[in-house]
Specification:
CATH superfamily of the largest domain: Naphthalene 1,2-dioxygenase Alpha Subunit, Chain A, domain 1
CATH class of the largest domain: Alpha Beta
Number of domains: 2
Radius of gyration: 22 Å
InterPro entries: Cholesterol_7-desaturase, Rieske_2Fe-2S, Rieske_2Fe-2S_sf, VanA_C_cat
Protein name: Rieske domain-containing protein
Number of helices: 7
Strand content: 25-35%
Keywords: 2Fe-2S, Iron, Iron-sulfur, Metal-binding, Oxidoreductase
Distance between the termini: 31 Å
GO molecular function: 2 iron, 2 sulfur cluster binding; metal ion binding; oxidoreductase activity
Number of strands: 16
Pfam families: Rieske, VanA_C
Amino acid sequence: MKAGDLLPRTICDIPMLLFRDKDGHATAIKDACSHRLAPLSAGVYQDGEVMCRYHGLRFGKGGKCVHNPHGQITDALSVRSWATVERHDLIWLWMGDIKAADDSLIPDLSFIDRTPAHGKFTGYLPTKANFELCTDNILDLTHTDYLHPDTLGGGGLTRAKEKVKVEGNIVTVRWENPNEVAPPALDRELDRPGSLANTFTEVVWYPPAVMKLCVHVEPVDPLNGSPVESVTMHIMTPEGAMKTHYFVLSTRNFRTDDPGYNEALGKFVNNIFATEDKPMLEAQQARMGTGDLWACNPALLPIDNAAVRARRILAHMIEKENNGEAA
């Protein structure tokens, strides 16, 4: 988000507006003027402030009204705001009470900061599906063997059988494929494509819906080249009960100084998500007709282990929060 941008987002059914204040910091306020509820995203950005295009009131950092052309400024003219932190190329929002905001809950994703500019790309996929349904898609990667057989899959994850570990509120699921040809997307990056490699795939889930997906491929024969690895963040932000802001940030340890390759890879991967994952998730959601998976009484398989654990942890955290307890 650049200075001067007005970025509207609906999160948890709340219309918000993000912009940069006079100090260049990201600010998130309600996208509705306190006077007549006109959308501030339809307004004008002026030196770190937003002017409502309807009657000219201006708002700045923290949602404070800083200019009222029709009289004095009162506290009633302020609009709601949310705490924000910029870290790891991302803007993080605290949806609750600003005074309770705790940025120590943000996962350590410093690998993003260490990755060269041309060794990472981003993606944004607005998806008409519940955010937990989108989360399930990453926590059960066996779907890649069938939905993406020629690119991200190849059959290995179905053969591997996942191992799930829970530590506190963090769920980790891992698949190991020794002495096999790597998945097509990474196999082609080896010095000798088609040669045997040891591949491990791991997803770490942080509540409520932040996932780090690592694929590491190491040739069995060291003469076949160095290991290649990709680490991709999949972050699901609920727009509403059945709509999700799906954010992707992908890094890698190979060809990190080639801007042309980076752009092409970003288009390739984002196209896979847009033309394969997104339609499937939206079709699922349409069949369900509700954001509540359990109301549909699904038949569960062993491959659902990690997703179910994550759902249960999140439900428990929400219950404790609703009861006024620390999650």
